[in-house]
Amino acid sequence: MALDSSEIPGRPIAKFESMLKTDDIYFFDAEDFEDIIHHYLNNGKIALAKKAIKIGLQQHPDSIAIKLLDVEVLVFENSLEEAELLLDKLQLLDSCNEEIYVQRANIYSKQDNHEVAIALLNKALELSDNSFDIHSLLGMEYLFLDDFKMAKDHFIKCVSFDPNDYSSLYNVIYCFEFLEDYDGAIYYLNDYLNVNPYCEVAWHQLGKQYYKKRMFSEALTAYDFAIISDDSFIGAYFEKGKVLEKLGKYEDAIENYETTIKIEDPTAHAYLRIANCYEKIENHNMAKFYYYQTVHEDPLLDKGWLAITDFYYKLRNFDKALYYVNKALNIDEKNPIYWKKCGEINSALKDYSQANLCYKEAVEYGNYDLDTWLKWADVAKQNKNFDAAIQILLQGLQFYPDNAKLLYKKAGLQLVIGDQINARISLINALKKNFNKFFLFEEEFPQFASSHWTLNIIKNIKKAS
């Protein structure tokens, strides 16, 4: 026997779950089933949503709204052909239902056919009285196509419908940032704040735009207003701390970072920034304390281990620096920055063989910085492996063909091994590229810089010019 759901107290969801636990069957309005199904879908409870759809269609077999929710589940589960067949049937019954076009758009979006999805959503827009959700979907489709201008326009419409739609507000600013239109973002946010002056999210985003433009005073003001709007807004304190760091106000920055720790559980990132500030004001004991707090809070934060490495490296405590860079490498052994730092530390410890291996790993994992080639060549030179040093420089010249440091160093090393023919070519090339940097050659290879051989080359270059 089916009982009316009004006989069971509470909300439709509670009634429905009570029904599932008993042998009783309760009757629900179609609208109640829609609410129940939406609830389960929004909470990721797909199995319960499918049960509600099945029972809902048993009680309301002609409900297009419930059938459309069935389509939504089919699309979610990638049963796209089945979903399309059901949509074909529904379109025969109600060709002006915008949700049919929305679900068709979802299918095409899943198939990476975003142009067709956009066309269908625009058709849905023509049929819809409430276009808020459709504009949001259009914004996402344009993001898939990297059309940030169109995406921005649709997300702006979402915010105009609902100023508290912070997800769309974030997307608007994301589009401005990707377009590198920071002035546009600032104008938009100020316009928004004229209407919504106590929106901490908007003030926070405005501060970030000012920060990107290095307008630090304006950024501080924006973050202050964010904090006035919500004095527990951690993001505003954290970003304000970063601005204060830029301004050299390290004690004030520490105070803001510490506030974030007081409001919520401490984070490794907050500890790391506090440690950086203490290091800047040369309070090494406190810096060390907070660096250790950083890695204690998050032992897998490789940036924390690298920060401690740099800290000890600057203090010339190379043994401890090596210990901590190895900690970073244990977490991310393919990180070229860590291998490069490991090379620098081993060089400082005069372990040139190990330094050579480290620089080799750094390059293999994608570090092609100019100073990486120079330092690696220096390590090979220290190992008396001059041929290897020349080969390293030749690799570097593939990335920096006009760089005077590489060119003069190569010429000098070729002279060291007695290859005067190639040394002559290299030195002439170096002088032609940058005559004024000849002092680099003089400093590193004084034994060759004042020789008749070198002076004749310089004389000929000057004549030719």
Structure description:
It contains 28 helices and 2 strands. It is elongated and about 105 Å long. A two-stranded parallel sheet has the order 1-2. With 465 residues, it is mainly α. The N and C termini lie far apart (105 Å). α3 runs antiparallel to α4, α9 packs antiparallel against α10 and α20 packs antiparallel against α21 (352-364). The longest helix is centred in the first third of the chain and has 14 residues, at 46-59. It is 77% helix and 1% strand.
Give the strand order, joined by hyphens, for the main sheet: 1-2
Number of helices: 28
- Give me the strand/helix succession: EHEHHHHHHHHHHHHHHHHHHHHHHHHHHH
What value does the Rg take, in angstroms? Answer: 33 Å
Shape: elongated
Low-confidence stretches: 1-10
Number of strands: 2
Helix content, binned percent: over 70%
Q: Please give the largest β-sheet.
A: 2 strands, parallel
Average residue pLDDT: 89
Strand content is under 5%
Ends apart, CA distance between termini: 105 Å
Concise overview:
This protein is mostly helical and 465 residues long. It has 28 helices and two strands. Helix 1 links the parallel strand 1 and strand 2 (25-27).
How would you describe this structure in keywords?
about 475 residues; mainly alpha; 28 helices; 2 strands; about 75% helix
Fold blueprint:
Layout: E1 2-4, H1 12-21, E2 25-27, H2 30-42, H3 46-59, H4 64-76, H5 80-93, H6 98-110, H7 114-127, H8 132-144, H9 148-161, H10 166-178, H11 182-195, H12 200-212, H13 216-229, H14 234-246, H15 250-263, H16 268-280, H17 284-297, H18 302-314, H19 318-331, H20 336-348, H21 352-364, H22 370-382, H23 386-399, H24 404-416, H25 420-433, H26 438-444, H27 446-449, H28 452-464
Parallel strand pairs: 1-2
Helix pairs in contact: 2-3, 2-4, 3-4, 4-5, 4-6, 5-6, 6-7, 7-8, 8-9, 9-10, 10-12, 11-12, 12-13, 12-14, 13-14, 14-15, 15-16, 16-17, 17-18, 18-19, 19-20, 20-21, 20-22, 21-22, 22-23, 23-24, 24-25, 24-26, 25-28
